[in-house]
Design goal:
By secondary structure, the protein is mainly alpha-helical. Helices cover 73% and strands 0% of the residues. It is globular, with a radius of gyration of 22 Å. The two termini are 27 Å apart.
């Protein structure tokens, strides 16, 4: 889903030299942002008192209710992209940008059906805490677990750097502290609850943040309709000025739009910030309601993505708003020009909330890879995983902040790379492997290695302009397809080892 590329459009353009978001400097917006941070601190203190073990720190003690888990999952799924980069992208390319979010209609059902129940039961049977844990248990392979952990760590550096830079932009826009200070303030606030309360603090801060995001998104959408005279008014304004905007593919090629749908649909099954949460559900019998609740939550949160994108286009087309200097100014310009300051404040706080939600999830997943998965791959166990998990959380966060501050255009590249890497390395081994008894250890390792090499190679070549695919062909889509093909081909070639790759208790979970 959209979370997977937090503020990607914003960061790609900023990499090319676009100025940061305009400074707001409004007392109401500053006050609401400060109240939000106070709420985060209060939730974090409460969660810290309940975090006593590594299981509490990494999987919230398997004690999260369905509604809380769903709202937290929505919050980390959309990230800040739905509020800033997404509307700007839709304003630029038209309705073709909806192919990024349309997969939400199927991915939530697919995730619950293919992964959720099996991962939750595996977590109960084996005491698992991480996504690589599930891969290691499925194939009886520490090597597969370790390789998937390496892929996750490489991708997380990019994801966290993009989100850290996004926080820098947002906090600079609100408080005028400068992007560099915004990065460190945002990381510091996130660290305050990540180090102390782990994923438990993250989950309940995500619930708070997700509720805020849904409320702000729905209210902004209502203002879009009011200002433009409903969706009919939007269509009548845009059609004479730019008819291609409202076409089924927007201004994109059909191949590009369908590539978006495939990558964001199938690739969602490998996004650890979402998949990891399946371990945390208190009662797996409630999973039957998860797809419905999460889809409804995403619809609410994504109303702003769609509404501001088409609404601002209509306002510009009719001359009621000046053409935007940069597409990413769509949301700030509409909020400051057509909505009450309190609502604008909620949205700016929501953007900060969304980026912090994503950073917290990735910090926790990365810390688990360092302190749990990699030692297991080498046949060792870390003593006092809770303490070392907190240390790893601190180190990873500081590293991401440094990358965001000093890597320049490389941040945008890392964000693109991270999404494709998660999908191509984890989807075949995890999503297919937990549903096909014929999958083998060799097939899993080969597919993870293929996704890692192909994504790194072609994204790097594209970044340095050495080679680029034809318009509409995404590297992430190609690497995912190749990884799936390698997974099935190698598993078929080594099919005689399939039975040896599957323990009896894992087989029972798969058949449940």
């Amino acid at each position: 889903m959209t979370a997977a590329l937090p503020l990607l459009a914003l960061l790609q353009k900023s990499a090319g030299g676009v100025a940061p978001m305009q400074h707001v400097g409004d007392p109401t917006i500053v006050a609401v942002a400060l109240l939000y941070f106070v709420g985060v601190v209060a939730i974090s203190v409460w969660a810290t008192r309940r975090t006593r073990t590594a299981r509490d720190f990494f999987v919230a003690g398997h004690g999260i209710g369905l509604v809380a888990l769903t709202v937290a999952s929505v919050s980390t799924s959309v990230s800040g992209f739905a509020f800033i980069g997404g509307p700007g992208l839709l304003y630029t390319v038209g309705l073709g940008a909806l192919y990024i979010v349309l997969p939400a209609s199927v991915t939530n059902v697919m995730g619950a059906w293919v992964l959720a129940k099996r991962m939750r039961l595996l977590g109960e049977v084996r005491g698992l805490m991480t996504v690589p844990d599930a891969i290691g248990a499925r194939y009886r392979s520490p090597a597969a677990q370790g390789l998937s952990a390496v892929a996750i760590l490489v991708a997380i550096v990019g994801y966290m750097a993009t989100n850290a830079l996004a926080m820098g932009y947002v906090l600079d826009a609100i408080f005028g502290v400068g992007i560099a200070w915004g990065i460190w303030i945002g990381i510091g606030i996130t660290l305050a609850y990540s180090v102390a309360g782990g994923i438990l603090a993250g989950i309940y801060n995500d619930v708070f943040q997700g509720t805020l995001m849904a409320l702000a998104s729905a209210l902004v959408f209502l203002f879009v309709l009011s200002v433009n005279g409903g969706m009919g008014g939007v269509s009548r304004a845009i059609m004479p000025a730019d008819p291609a905007f409202l076409g089924p593919w927007g201004k994109m090629t059909p191949l590009a739009a369908l590539s978006f749908f495939f990558v964001f649909g199938m690739g969602s099954l490998g996004q650890p910030q979402g998949v990891h949460k399946y371990y945390m559900l208190r009662d797996p019998r409630q999973l039957k309601w998860y797809p419905l609740l999460k889809t409804l939550g995403l619809v609410l949160v994504l109303l702003l993505y769609f509404g501001v994108g088409v609404g601002v286009k209509a306002l510009v087309a009719t001359g009621r708003m000046a053409p935007l200097a940069t597409a990413d100014a769509a949301t700030p310009s509409f909020l400051l020009g057509f909505t009450p300051r309190v609502l604008a404040a909620l949205v700016f706080a929501g953007v900060a909330a969304a980026t912090m939600s994503a950073v917290n999830s990735f910090i926790n997943i990365g810390a688990a890879a360092v302190t749990h998965d990699l030692p297991v791959a080498f046949g060792r166990r870390v003593g006092n995983e809770l303490w070392w998990g907190r240390v790893a959380t601190l180190v990873i966060a500081v590293l991401a902040a440094l990358v965001a501050q000093f890597s320049g255009t490389m941040v945008a590249f890392l964000g693109v790379f991270g999404w494709g890497l998660f999908g191509s390395t984890l989807v075949p081994a995890l999503a297919f492997g937990l549903n096909w008894e014929g999958a083998t250890k060799a097939g899993a390792i080969a597919s993870i290695a293929t996704g890692l090499v192909v994504t790194l190679l072609f994204e790097t070549l594209a970044f340095f302009k050495v080679y680029a695919f034809p318009t509409g062909v995404a590297v992430s889509g190609l690497s995912l397809v190749l990884s799936i093909l390698v997974f099935f081909a190698v598993s078929w070639a080594t099919r005689r080892t399939a039975a040896a790759s599957l323990d009896p208790d894992v087989r029972l979970v798969m058949e449940a």
